[in-house]
Specification:
alpha/beta, Rossmann fold, globular, binds adenosine monophosphate, binds FE2/S2 (inorganic) cluster, binds zinc ion
Length: about 325
Amino acid sequence: MKCRRCKAPAIIDIPRHNAAFCADCFTHQCREQVKRAIHEHRMIAPGEKVLVAVSGGKDSLALWDLLTEIDIPADGLYLGLGIGEYSDHSGEYTRAFAAERGLRLHEVDLLRDHGYDVPGAAEATRRAPCGACGLSKRHLFNQVALDEGYDVVATGHNLDDEAAVLLGNVLRWETAYLGRQFPVLPAGPGFARKVKPLVRLSEREMAAYCVIRGIDYQVEECPMADGNRHLGFKELLNQLETKSPGTKAAFISGFWSRGHDAFIAEADEERATLAPCTECGAPTTTGDRCAFCSLRSRAQSATTEQPVTLRTRS
Ligand code: AMP
Ligand code: FES
Ligand code: ZN
């Protein structure tokens, strides 16, 4: 197996591109894919202030490294979710990465700053923790970006994540979600722009990138993500991809070019009905308190009732 670019021995093959690369050319290829995604979808303009949401996992640490390497300076944001040792270690990887490179890292801790944690929120809602977790992340990424004057929030969602979410949304015809499923979500009143610069790169490629670049990351999966239906969709898509390389990329890029437009109107309608939350001012469709503020007040009582060690499943 030879590197497509320089003909040296290759260390990784990428079946969907029918290509293999040596370590140097692979990192070059990753940078090119990120530049292409940013350019194609007009994610970030020169001089804009970028905030990367960094979980301590491979994707978001690779993203922070890649943006730095292609001369797009970005600060990081780590959100402490209070999921026992998993969160402690994730924070440590993120802080170590930032400190080694002299990068600026913002931190928000759900328990310290908002009086609840994800296990408490799961208990209060009696639903899978990922729902409350995702809601908290979306709200707080946006809030920090607005409070600190960032133009763009970048997340480490990769090709596999996008394909799995798309499959889930299509299977249930979640039309409003489909209208919002795009590599860039524009800014609006109360919203910073959201971008996903890794949409052209797979999970496996991001793991390889971290190994090559010597990036230490949290390898454990979230202990509360058991039963998350996206994990099942990822497995199904991997089976299809093995039989027919390029399936995932074709699925999502076909949706962006030929499907997404059909659902925009519904997402826009929802945006048009937004009004400020009576408590925090964030845009909400409820006409009252936003979903984050309601979750927070319910979760605070569940969180204070029991210490975190009893609530964390591992
Ligand atoms: P997930 O929702 O866990 O699939 O993560 C998707 C993206 O959200 C990651 O690639 C990160 O950019 C961001 N993210 C997830 N968890 C955190 C966290 N605890 N703090 C900051 N960013 C996060
Ligand atoms: Fe949110 Fe696991 S990371 S529930
Ligand atoms: Zn609110």
